[in-house]
Structures are given as C-alpha cells and as structure tokens.
Amino acid sequence: MTKAAIASLIRPLVEGQLDGLDVTWFDSGDQALEIADTVEIGWFDMYDKPKMGEIISAATNLKWLNSIYAGIEHFPVDALRERGTIVTNGTGINAIPIAEYVVMGMLAASKRVDKLLDSQAKKEWLNGPPGNSELFESKVLIIGYGAIGQQVAKTLSGFNADITAVRRTPVSDGSAIGPDDWRSRLGEFDWVILAAPATDETQHMIGTAELAAMKDSAWLVNIARGSLVDQPALISALEAKTIGGAFLDTVTPEPLPSDDPLWTAPNIFITSHMSGNATTRMFERAGQRFVENLKRYRSGEPMISVADLNLGY
User: What is the DSSP code string of 11-32?
Assistant: First the structure.
C-alpha cells in the first residue's frame, strides 16, 4: 500500500476519498520529519518554510510532493529534480480571492479609500473626493498570465477594462505580448499588475527605468512576490511622484520591518500578503485537487499544476 504523509488540517476534507493510501496524519513539523523518509507521497505545507525544506530534503523516497503554495522557491528544488520527484503546486487555487483583492486594491487606489478613512478617523467632512479616477475603460497591463492573471482579467471585464497581458507565448489577436515587449509600452497603461512567478528572470523586473517609463498617474499593483520590485527605486518614484502610487500585497522581506521606509512612502497601500488567504474555500479547493491528482497519479494520467523544476514554477 502506498504510504503518504499529510497534515492533519486537511484530514476532514479528504479522508474517505483516499482508498488504498496508507496515510500518516501529522500535527507538527517534528512528527513529519520522523516519517518523511518512509513515504512516497507527501503534503508537507507549513508556515515554517525552513522546517518544511528540511522535511522535504529528508523525504528521500518521495515520488510526489503536493503543495498548496504556488511558489516553489522555498523548496529544495535541486534535490527534488535529482530524485525525479513530481511536484504539484497550488497554482490557481486562490486565483479567485486574489483577483478580488486586485480589484479591491484598484478601487481603493482610484477612490483613495485611505484618505476617506483618514477623514472619518479625524471626524472631518470632506468637500470633494480625494480620488476620482475610474476603472471603467482604463488600460491595464498584467505581467504574468497564468491562472491568477487570467482570473484578474476576467474579474476586470465587468469594468470594460482594456487588458494587455504579458505571457511567454504571445497570441495573434494582440491582447497578449511577449516578455521582451512590455517595457517599451509601459507609458500606455493606467495600471501595471504583477502576477508573475519569482524567478531569477523576474528579480527586480520593476526598477528605476521601468518606473520612470510609467505614466505619472499610473499605479503599480503587486500580488506576486516582493522580489519582482526594486523597493528603493519604488520609494524614490513614489517620493518624486513619477507614478501615481502602489498597491503592494507582497514585499521584501516579509514581515516588513517596522522601520522600513516603504511603510511611510506616499501613495502606498501595504496589505501584509493577505490576498491568497482572504478566502473561506482555499483548503477545500486544495483538497479537491489533491484527490483528483491522486487518481491521475495512480492511473498515469497528466496531473494538474505540475511545477517545472527547471523554470522554477
């Protein structure tokens, strides 16, 4: 019988659907570490990323690693590649709540909800709107057009937004462009949304030159990883008002130190990497995907959301 290790948190969502699987349900990282080298299938997600990496490294007989995380940068990728381990990640599981978060951020920025709430806290009645831009028919660049980027575009369709997506493979209708084509067009967009994975290629993809090329009224929205943005360059751009502002769900490092100047930069929203967690259905969706992938794993069918360990996502 195939042995697996899965966190007890998932147990109520999948137990009874794992026929023929000998599961050890663990409650702690230490428990998982004890049995890591005995299992063929592992789902070792935990908030302690170094501990999770230690467990996965110890799982020398692992043939399939499942994760709810979309990014795999905190995994021992080299070891997994050498062992030939299949890695399925959480790409798309939180696409809906993250897309909702993006629209929330765009609306908050366009209407300057921060200033509205500040006036309420001060008990000051405003004589005019602090923000009056509209999402309707605005021009949006989405960098990274996987499950999240596509869901963002779908959610923005209700605003009749003009979407241009950046993807590795452009399409003939011109609605998507290649990874070498977006920088020359940055000045066209009201919103630049980052939804790309964290790789060596995307490290600081938004820096001084890119920020200078954006419209001075444009907003940067990052729901990907903090590493995609050169934060000192962003602070300079915000202070110089060369862009309209930034909505950052993710930064570097996390948690952001209380004395980091990013906190007090003008025209900025920082939301503590909550977009993917702002949902009641994350674990439900993850459990459903695991059960479906287990069927595919056993039958040899293509599995859902298999990460490319060479590309890093």
Answer: HHHHTTS-TTEEEEEESSHHHH
